[in-house]
Design goal:
The protein has 432 residues and is α/β, with parallel strands linked by helices. Helices cover 47% and strands 15% of the residues. It contains 20 helices and 14 strands. A seven-stranded parallel β-sheet has the order 3-2-1-4-5-6-7, sandwiched between helices. Strand 4, helix 8 and strand 5 form a beta-alpha-beta unit.
Length: 432
């Protein structure tokens, strides 16, 4: 397999000077609260968890969204093969917490090693995966080259590349081509990603446009006893949800809520920030605005006088999507790129969103065409949409249309399961 001059330089640096640089980076991230102090050894490629016996499929998912998207795929693979184990690597503390709660038996989470050769070889020497699966399109050169050099089949599943990523790699096209040609096959989310990857050097015959794996994902879980108790506590009170919000979006939701309350005085807004560690900051803003509110991390439920409920916990979004018939999906009123609309769609919640949905542009287009999502542009329009959808028939019709779009994508998970098992069997035959 060819190596471009840029890739050769990178790999030479990775073998000599990258480790000290990576150690500095780790210290900086640790001080910023972005690393797990008790598990830094994993980032150095020094695992302490034993490798399970038998076959091992390794999935790398950059962060929370990517790791959640593969949970149903992992569950299905483990159901298919009782002798199989799964390793999932991610790079964020939040994703590690989510995986600790969600991964099934025979699945292990580890932090991905930083891309220095010593760290990467330590990781691969220990885990010895039989198949390696990259989700989305996060490309770490040393990790890719070292995995390929060991003859481990490499797949890309749920591949997506943004214009910004494409433009960055375009200036290193030779390096991108050297990396992409090491992949045996890719299931890509959309035609745009297929075009970007083809331009950068991934052969068209190794690619298949399938849509997003999130379409085939199982519905977000929740504690059913908790859901029932909260629903009884609310007693039929009208509710709407601002989900996965980012800075600035809580303000928009609160302004919209103030308008909507004029027509529906008992209306409750539930705010679920994308990053729960912002809970104190958001609570201060709500209080400064004069709202009566309760807070999930204080073990409170919304009382009769509360207008707002701050649900600043991890892993409970499935609960709130089930509680609220109307959901504004955040990351879409600020240029974040949006979050997964299939999560509320699978749970019967009507979908509202802002204009910034580049991460899910094809999905939102399909939802819009099916009249299953409503684009809003500010607090006034958000308030109008919320009040309109408080009509149960309108909310139910919109939620049903979204559910139909979601259910049409379940075959994507089937295709991904077949692809992984096919390459696992080929690897087994070669080893025998």
């Amino acid at each position: 397999m060819g190596v471009s001059p840029a890739l050769a330089l990178y790999l030479a640096w990775s073998g000599r000077g990258a480790a000290p640089f990576a150690e500095r980076k780790l210290r900086e991230r640790l001080e910023a609260g972005k690393e797990d102090r008790d598990r830094l050894y994993e980032r150095r490629g020094e695992p302490r968890e034993p490798r399970p016996e038998g076959k091992l499929v390794w999935f790398h998912a950059a962060s929370v969204g990517e790791s959640l998207a593969i949970l149903e795929l992992i569950r299905r693979l483990l159901e298919e093969r009782e002798d199989l184990s799964v390793l999932v690597t991610t790079g964020t503390v939040t994703s590690a917490g989510v995986m600790a709660e969600r991964l099934p038996e025979r699945a292990i989470h580890q932090y991905i090693p930083l891309d220095a050769r010593r760290f990467v070889t330590g990781f691969l020497d220990h885990w010895r995966p039989d198949v390696a699966v990259w989700t989305e399109s996060e490309l770490w050169p040393t990790l890719i080259c070292e995995t390929h050099a060991r003859g481990i089949p490499m797949l890309m599943i749920n591949a997506r590349m943004s214009k910004a990523s494409h433009d960055k790699w375009r200036f290193l096209r030779g390096m991108a081509k050297s990396l992409l040609r090491r992949f045996d096959h890719a299931l890509v989310q959309d035609d745009l990603t297929e075009m970007y990857l083809r331009r950068l050097g991934l052969p068209p015959l190794r690619m298949e446009v399938t849509g997003t794996l999130k379409e085939g994902a199982a519905a977000l879980p929740c504690d059913e006893d908790e859901r029932r108790a909260i629903a009884e506590h609310l007693g039929g009170r009208p509710v709407w949800l601002a989900a996965s919000t980012h800075p600035g979006e809580e303000r928009i939701a609160l302004d919209a809520h103030r308008i909507a309350l004029k027509a529906n005085p008992r209306l409750l807004l539930i705010i679920v920030p994308r990053h729960p560690q912002r809970g104190d900051e958001i609570a201060q803003m709500i209080q400064a605005d004069g709202w009566r509110f309760n807070r999930r991390t204080a073990d409170e439920l919304p009382d009769d006088e509360a207008n707002v409920y701050l649900a600043d916990t991890i892993g409970e979004l499935g609960l709130w999507y089930r509680i609220a018939p109307i959901s504004f999906v955040g990351g879409s009123m600020t240029p974040v790129g949006g979050h997964n609309p299939f999560e509320p769609a699978a749970l019967g919640s009507a979908i509202l969103h802002g204009p910034y949905v580049t991460n899910f542009v094809d999905i939102y287009q399909r939802l819009t065409e099916a009249k299953a999502a409503w684009l809003i542009s500010g607090p006034d329009k958000l308030a109008i949409a919320v009040n309109d959808l408080l009509n149960p028939d309108r909310a139910a019709a919109m939620a049903h249309a979204a559910w139909e779009v979601v259910s049409a994508g379940s075959e994507i998970t089937d295709k991904a399961v077949d692809l992984v098992l096919e390459h696992l069997d080929k690897a087994t035959e070669r080893a025998d």
